[in-house]
UniProtKB/TrEMBL annotation:
Domain PAC as annotated: residue spans: 122-176
Keyword flag Hydrolase: yes
Keyword line: Hydrolase
Enzyme Commission number(s) of this protein: 3.1.4.52
GO molecular function, one term: cyclic-guanylate-specific phosphodiesterase activity
Protein name: cAMP phosphodiesterase
Amino acid sequence: MNRELQLERKDGTQVWTSFSLSKIDVDGRIHYMAAARDVSKEVARREQNRLLLLAVNNTDRAVVVLDEQRRIVQTNRAFTSMFGYGADEAMNQVFPDFLLSSGNSDDALKRVEEHLRGSRWFQEELLTATRNGREVWSRVSVNPVLNERDHRQTRNLVVTFVDITEERNIRNLERDVLAALTSRMTFQETGDYICQRIGNIAPGVLVSVCRIVDNRMRPWAAPGFPKEYGEYWDGVAVGEGVASCGTCAVRGEPVMVQDISTDPLWAPYKHPDVASWFSGMLDIPCKTSRWFRGRDVCFLFQDTE
């Protein structure tokens, strides 16, 4: 018999041991020999590794571990969730050929190759590809694990991925909106462009922008909406209970309506065409230092599903 047992020393402290019990026949008489070896350090190391693996498997960041040839030797659950590859499918695949999209610039790929040959931590925003071909912008961080005996040699690389697609979309949107506001577009063209640009990064919704002038709604732009939409709301006074936009304007905070057919904010506004325009809505106020002075914008997101 050979197993690990926790034994108690004379002083009362506990110790993990590798305990073995052997049966010995000496001149027809049966004897038993017991041997115990202190394995507390090995048990503690295994427990530490178990907890580390538990932490890696339950983090929301995709993680892969590479060997010296940049082959994947370990993945976590978040990796499978983000990219769609099972651990067996990813095993022995070579990074960065595996996971990085061909849509990355040559300069970005060159920087990655240079960093991978080094022995320092680095981070890069890269376009990655999932198992089904969907492209995802990721913040890729690479942490080298150096050889314990020779710190000039990299033993493994730990690579983490964070999906920043939404973050990049918002950054690009802010840049494009600022460019539109400072361009030679007409006022109406600028409003339409802003709505369309938001719609591009929010599939399944329609977007409109409404100005608040003298406490009344003045629809600015609503590409994709029926013409009657703007006419219906033009000049309506804002106030609590005045549908979503009017309520949003006076509260100065976002207003979400899941179902306008049952929400009390929409009870007084049962225009026959309203139900065909949208089923739910999110209104977000864009405040300025001169509230209700004609410089306020309200974004409306229309659920088209």
